[in-house]
């Protein structure tokens, strides 16, 4: 690959490096290339000296695959180009060994790495060598159990602990207490805080330390406040006569703290309050208070809140007493847990890290482990927490003084983007990356000063000429920034730069980070069209060329009769109905896909229509999408909800669980649920009739008796299936039983025409995987299984870290799940929703755990205490959360390659200024919150300005962006506009998917007394009619295919089946390699074929490859295809149809469903048979005629108004540029009457198939 100058710097391997990589800058590619360059300088047997740490198992697997793929490419290149080289055989042998050794390469997660260490040093870590990892459900069960046991001990036993516990619970609720204990359990930093500040401290020391921290915080905030005032009003001290004391205190705070510390805490607060009163009453310009004119009024408000809470600082010693009880309880609770885990050889994921960190304090062990490795590479470092970094640091550290912060023998390579640090809830700490950066720079400065590293280096990369490189100062000391982004289109790039340059600024707040603007480097052939001051897009039709950013706003109109004050009283809020935003969003997706809306093809730079799979809908929280999903269903938009935690709550999984519950206790409710579900499709009326036929016995017994007089196929089928498993469930493992029931009832297929079928089927598969894991743990009784399911309702856990994406549907997922992904079109949905609410418990490194508590006064009874330390900790936590929320928005915005759509619901209000003599009314919006509020901040807009943009329909801005082309940078100046969309054109879809879903629903209503049990394909019916022995073996006895026919053996390099599959795939994707001028792009066709061969794991010789390609080209260049090419490019390919028919399912897959110029639909079927004569051609056409007619019958249900139905068999091997159609295409044509008669024939075939006597006769006649 060709490297940018930035990327080349990362391949210097003689020092520690930290790579700060913008989204889309190719950091994963760099990590792989870095790994390869390191191992190529080692003997293959030394690969395990290199440790690559990834964030997830999936990422580890992908990195390993990419490394192996690169080695395979190197092997291929070597074979093609270097047979004559003297070193060929040695190089070839080495590459083969590198590839072989990759199976044992240490590419893994931090937990997997620590697990290996722990197993080797189990004795030192005080764990069993055969320890078992505790899953989340079991851990949650253990925590609840031992919390309750410990609490019972504290409350029941007659001792001092009981007295303290009763006093404690007068101040703190049990629910809050449980949350605090859980917080301590899950966070080693909090445990260390209690150990150092509570365990052996006394009340006076604690109070003094808290007061000092309060002073420091107030001084810091006072300086920020005065700075904010003087920034807004530079002449503040001159125009305000009472400001001299403020100025004097500011100078004292800036000069130093000695004098302040000599004051008592009370005097310090009194003096500060006196100064504050002057600030609070000061009025400037128009006799307005300072607070109402500041750029950041929150600084003012936060300072005021802390001062107000200072009166309650006298209760700090009460907090210390409460925390002492909490810690004593936690130690007793932890002891129970540890004993139980030790006795059962259990450890948690946190234990794994903590225990490895513990044993690494032993220098001999640390040195012994370190000696095995020479390089650590860590991906996604922004997601690392403190203890993970300390483990790595300990392995590569010598002494702790700065000159030896890292050893000389192990190098560290870190890749990450602090702007994507969004896993604070998983204890990821953005400060860790800042610390690592400082450590690396200091170490490299030491090496540079000792002349162990140089600024001018020569890179000797594999298979490349030496490259002389002069590193910048920051690169020389190990900090490399990858700013060149290859993902985002032009307008998307400048929009991201515009808002995040304002949002992400490094400040004194330790959780803040800076922003380095993206340099645009995506392939775009239209950049030369842009002139200075060009407004993009100039016309709507060109919007696809440069990307697009849009706001989609559901604007609720104001009630004109309502008036609102324009003072400090605030505005009443009109809450908009989120359902309106959901409907608008679904309607807009429908418009995007079914009208002519285009984006740029990422690979070719050409224009392409937006399709469902291009679209990713990202949400901040999972719980805001229910209304959106209902509206997607309404508009027949297929979608896939990527949510591994909440599948238990879906109807399809609830229906499966009903089976388990029924087998467990035979309850009527569960039986009714099963019958009503998609398993059997009973209506409420049918169940009601069964129930009322005999109310004195159970529903199951009633159902059995009801069958005597109502022995329909539907009823009999349901009873027989349930009865069989009711009798045999004890002897069948539950995971096998559920899989059998799902298969036997065709449960999956009942959702095949549902818009959210992909999500439904994924939920079912996730549940089956969950059941399998439970069974593997040895839980087999149905009662215990239901208990495990119940726990998972309350504490859902990720089934795995793999993200699934649908190929033919809109993907719906949380922003956190989207990290690492990209979509051509991204919809950020419901940005105005408010963020998470706090549980009222906060932790800060300096103030510890803070929470409200009650104080019992002898005079006035209990009242709530809100300490200043709580207010400070709360403000720090809120500011920390705001910084992370900005980063979450950054992750979301940078997923969109071409089109970013941001949706919100806003309430329009009328605001009336009553202070003047005349009432002046104006309109604005209320209730701006969540991420929309952050976006406004990034755009430097207030609510009124944003409202005006919504009403004006667009926003335009001048900009300058840096562009990198072939390692040369230039600046491009232009203007761009962002549309604000409040109304969407209503589009009626003519797409096949839409129609087939509606038709299927109608058909289901027409055959309400039947329910699908078999899938009847054309092949199955033909087999029944003409090859009854094969039918008996395959469909009655259900022998596997290997017993029904001989395995394919021949001298062919590729089987006819695989060859046909490849040709089908190429024709299915014809729109990829036919351009807008209807010309064939051979290079793209090559890529399509190569990709499919790779997926099929088939290696072809060049001759066979060219032969297959030639066949495809001959078909495409033929007169028939050229005449129909526009229709073919817009046709539906590989159309999979399920249709209820005569109590069963008809299942077909049509190669091409094409709409002709006359408006009728035709069926095309590609055939790659070898045909040597006209007679063979006619015989094959006759053989396939039944199949084509069967397809036409199904199509007639979808398009019943057609007068004739045409199907064509296209024999691809017979194609040439100008053949007679009759020599290679078999055409079939049927009238509507022909198809009606054929339906009756098919009905009779189905009846025969369901006739037991007839099936028995087939078995007897075909032994």
Question: Could you explain the architecture of this structure?
Answer:
The protein is an alpha/beta fold and 1263 residues long. It has 6 domains: 5-131 and 345-482, Rossmann fold (3-Layer(aba) Sandwich); 137-331, no CATH class; 519-559 and 590-639 and 814-981, 3-Layer(aba) Sandwich (Rossmann fold); 643-799, PCRA, domain 4 (Orthogonal Bundle); 1013-1039 and 1119-1262, Lambda Exonuclease, Chain A (Alpha-Beta Complex); 1052-1117, no CATH class. The strands form 10 sheets. Strands 15, 16, 19, 20, 21, 22, 27, 28, 29 and 30 form a 10-stranded mixed sheet that branches. The chain has a 6-stranded parallel sheet with strand order 3-2-8-9-1-12, sandwiched between helices. A hairpin with a 3-residue loop joins strand 23 and strand 24. The longest helix has 30 residues, at 203-232. The radius of gyration is 35 Å and the shape is globular.
Could you give the topology of this structure?
Blueprint lengths: L4 H5 L7 E5 L5 H13 L10 E5 L2 H25 L6 H14 L4 E4 H11 L1 H4 L6 E2 L2 H21 L3 H12 L2 H13 L1 H10 L5 H30 L3 H4 L4 H12 L2 H5 L2 H17 L1 E2 L3 E2 L7 H13 L6 H28 L2 E2 L1 H11 L3 H8 L4 E4 L7 H11 L14 E6 L13 H20 L6 E4 L7 E4 L2 H4 L2 E4 L1 E2 L4 H14 L15 E2 L14 E2 L6 H4 L1 E9 L21 H17 L3 E3 L6 E3 L5 E5 L6 H9 L4 E3 L9 H15 L2 H9 L7 H9 L6 H11 L3 H16 L5 H11 L12 H20 L5 H13 L15 E5 H4 L4 E6 L13 E3 L3 E3 L2 E5 L3 E5 L2 H26 L2 E18 L6 E7 L3 H9 L4 H10 L1 E12 L2 E14 L10 H15 L8 E2 L1 H9 L1 H9 L4 H4 L11 H13 L1 H4 L8 H14 L6 H16 L1 H11 L2 E10 L2 E12 ...
Parallel strand pairs: 1-9, 1-12, 2-3, 2-8, 4-7, 8-9, 13-14, 15-30, 16-27, 16-30, 19-21, 19-22, 20-21, 22-27, 31-33, 34-35
Antiparallel strand pairs: 5-6, 10-11, 17-18, 23-24, 25-26, 27-28, 29-30, 32-33, 33-34, 35-36
Helix pairs in contact: 2-3, 3-4, 5-18, 7-8, 7-17, 9-10, 9-17, 11-13, 11-16, 11-17, 16-36, 18-20, 23-37, 25-26, 27-28, 32-33, 40-41, 41-50, 43-46, 48-49
């Amino acid at each position: 690959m060709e490297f940018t100058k930035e990327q080349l710097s990362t391949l210097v391997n003689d020092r520690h490096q930290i790579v700060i990589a913008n989204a889309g800058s190719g950091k994963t590619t760099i990590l792989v290339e870095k790994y390869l360059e390191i191992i190529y300088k080692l003997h293959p047997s030394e690969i395990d000296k290199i440790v690559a740490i990834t964030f997830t198992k999936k990422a580890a697997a992908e990195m390993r695959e990419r490394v192996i793929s690169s080695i395979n490419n190197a092997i291929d290149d070597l074979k093609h180009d270097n047979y004559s080289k003297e070193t060929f055989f040695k190089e070839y042998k080495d590459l083969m060994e590198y590839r072989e050794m990759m199976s044992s390469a240490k590419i893994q997660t931090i937990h997997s790495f620590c697990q290996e260490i722990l197993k080797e040093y189990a004795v030192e870590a005080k764990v069993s060598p055969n320890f078992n990892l505790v899953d989340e459900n079991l851990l949650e069960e253990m925590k609840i159990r031992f919390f309750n046991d410990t609490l019972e001990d504290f409350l029941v036993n007659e001792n001092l602990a009981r007295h303290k516990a009763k006093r404690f619970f007068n101040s703190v609720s049990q629910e809050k207490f449980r949350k605090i204990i859980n917080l301590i359990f899950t966070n080693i930093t909090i445990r260390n805080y209690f150990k150092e500040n509570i365990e052996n401290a006394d009340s006076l020391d604690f109070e003094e330390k808290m007061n000092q921290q309060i002073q420091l915080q107030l001084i810091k905030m006072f300086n920020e406040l005065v700075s904010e005032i003087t920034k807004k009003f530079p002449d503040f001290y001159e125009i305000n006569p009472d400001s001299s004391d403020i100025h004097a205190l500011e100078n004292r705070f800036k000069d130093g703290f000695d004098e302040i510390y000599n004051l008592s805490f009370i005097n310090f607060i009194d003096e500060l309050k006196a100064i504050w009163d002057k600030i609070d009453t000061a009025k400037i310009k128009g006799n307005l208070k300072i607070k109402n004119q500041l750029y950041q009024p929150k600084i003012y408000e936060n300072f005021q809140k802390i001062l107000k809470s200072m009166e309650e600082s006298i209760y700090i010693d009460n907090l210390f007493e409460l925390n002492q009880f909490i810690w004593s309880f936690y130690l007793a609770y932890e002891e129970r847990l540890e004993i139980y885990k030790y006795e059962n050889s259990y450890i948690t994921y946190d234990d794994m890290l903590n225990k490895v960190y513990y044993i690494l304090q032993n220098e001999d062990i640390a040195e012994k482990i370190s000696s095995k490795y020479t390089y650590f590479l860590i991906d996604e470092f922004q997601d690392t927490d403190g203890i993970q970094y300390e483990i790595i640091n300990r392995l590569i550290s010598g002494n702790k003084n700065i000159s030896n912060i890292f050893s000389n023998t192990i190098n560290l390579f870190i890749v990450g983007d602090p702007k994507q640090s969004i896993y604070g809830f998983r204890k990821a700490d953005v400060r860790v990356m800042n610390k690592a950066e400082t450590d690396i720079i200091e170490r490299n400065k030491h090496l540079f000063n000792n002349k162990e590293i140089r600024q001018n280096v020569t890179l000797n990369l594999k298979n490349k000429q030496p490259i002389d490189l002069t590193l910048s100062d920051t690169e020389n000391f190990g900090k490399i920034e990858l700013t060149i982004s290859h993902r985002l289109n032009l307008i998307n790039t400048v929009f991201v730069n515009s808002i995040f340059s304002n949002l992400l600024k490094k400040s004194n707040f330790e959780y803040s980070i800076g922003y380095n603007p993206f340099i645009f480097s995506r392939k775009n052939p239209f950049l030369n069209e842009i002139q200075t001051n060009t407004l993009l897009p100039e016309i709507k039709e060109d919007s696809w060329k440069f990307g697009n950013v849009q706001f989609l706003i559901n604007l609720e109109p104001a009630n004109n009769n309502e008036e609102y004050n324009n003072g400090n009283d605030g505005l009443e809020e009109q809450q908009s109905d989120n359902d309106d935003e959901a409907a608008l969003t679904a309607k807009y997706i429908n418009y995007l896909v079914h009208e002519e809306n285009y984006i740029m093809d990422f690979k070719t730079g050409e224009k392409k229509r937006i399709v469902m799979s291009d679209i990713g809908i990202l949400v901040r929280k999972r719980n805001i999408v229910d209304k959106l999903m209902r509206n997607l269903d309404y508009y027949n938009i297929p979608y896939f909800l990527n949510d591994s935690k909440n599948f238990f709550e879906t109807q399809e999984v609830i229906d499966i669980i009903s089976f388990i519950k029924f087998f467990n206790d035979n309850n009527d409710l569960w039986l009714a649920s099963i019958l009503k579900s998609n398993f059997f499709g009973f209506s409420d009326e049918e169940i009601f009739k069964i129930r009322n036929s005999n109310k004195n016995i159970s529903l199951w017994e009633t159902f059995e008796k009801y069958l005597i007089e109502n022995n329909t196929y539907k009823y009999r089928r349901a009873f027989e299936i349930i009865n069989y498993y009711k009798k045999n469930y004890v002897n069948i493992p539950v995971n096998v039983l559920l899989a059998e029931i799902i298969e036997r009832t065709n449960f999956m297929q009942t959702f095949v025409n549902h818009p959210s079928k992909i999500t439904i089927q994924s939920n079912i598969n996730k549940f089956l995987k969950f059941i399998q894991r439970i069974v593997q743990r040895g839980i087999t009784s149905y009662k215990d299984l239901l208990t495990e399911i119940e726990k998972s309702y309350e504490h859902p856990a990720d089934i795995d870290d793999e993200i699934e994406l649908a190929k033919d549907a809109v993907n719906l997922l949380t922003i956190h799940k989207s990290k690492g992904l990209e979509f051509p079109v991204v919809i950020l949905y419901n940005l105005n929703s408010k963020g998470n609410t706090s549980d009222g418990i906060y932790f800060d490194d300096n103030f510890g755990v803070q929470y409200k508590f009650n104080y019992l006064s002898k005079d006035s009874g209990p009242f709530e205490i809100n300490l200043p330390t709580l207010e400070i900790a709360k403000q720090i936590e809120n500011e920390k959360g705001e910084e992370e929320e900005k980063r979450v928005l950054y992750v979301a915005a940078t997923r969109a390659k071409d089109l970013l759509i941001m949706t919100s619901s806003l309430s329009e209000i009328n605001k009336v200024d009553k202070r003047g003599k005349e009432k002046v009314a104006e309109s604005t919006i209320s209730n701006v919150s969540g991420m929309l509020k952050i976006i406004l901040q990034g755009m430097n807009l207030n609510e009124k300005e944003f409202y005006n943009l919504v009403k004006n329909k667009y926003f335009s801005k001048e900009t300058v962006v840096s562009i990198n082309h072939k390692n040369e940078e230039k600046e491009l100046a232009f203007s761009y506009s962002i549309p604000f969309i409040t109304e969407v054109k209503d589009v009626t879809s003519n797409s096949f998917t839409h129609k087939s879903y509606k038709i299927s629903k109608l058909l289901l209503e027409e055959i309400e007394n039947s329910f699908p049990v078999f899938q009847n394909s054309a092949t199955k019916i033909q087999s029944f009619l003409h090859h009854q022995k094969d039918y008996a073996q395959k469909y009655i006895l259900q022998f596997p295919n290997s017993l029904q026919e001989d395995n394919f053996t021949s001298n062919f390099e590729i089987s006819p089946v695989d060859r046909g599959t490849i040709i089908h795939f190429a024709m299915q994707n014809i729109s990829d390699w036919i351009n807008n001028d209807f010309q064939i792009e051979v290079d793209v066709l090559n890529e399509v074929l190569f990709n499919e061969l790779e997926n099929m794991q088939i290696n072809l010789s060049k001759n066979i490859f060219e032969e297959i390609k030639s066949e495809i080209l001959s078909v495409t260049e033929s007169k028939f295809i050229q005449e129909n090419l526009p229709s073919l490019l817009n046709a539906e390919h590989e159309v999979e149809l399920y249709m209820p028919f005569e109590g069963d399912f008809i299942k077909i897959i049509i190669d091409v469903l094409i709409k002709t110029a006359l408006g009728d639909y035709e069926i095309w079927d590609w055939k790659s048979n070898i045909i040597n004569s006209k007679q063979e051609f006619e015989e094959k056409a006759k053989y396939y005629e039944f199949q084509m007619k069967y397809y036409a019958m199904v199509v007639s249900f979808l398009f019943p108004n057609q007068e004739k139905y045409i199907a064509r068999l296209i024999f691809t091997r017979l194609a040439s540029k100008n053949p007679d159609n009759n020599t290679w295409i078999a055409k079939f044509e049927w009238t509507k009457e022909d198809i009606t008669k054929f339906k009756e024939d098919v009905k009779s075939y189905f009846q025969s198939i369901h006739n037991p006597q007839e099936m028995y006769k087939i078995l007897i006649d075909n032994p």
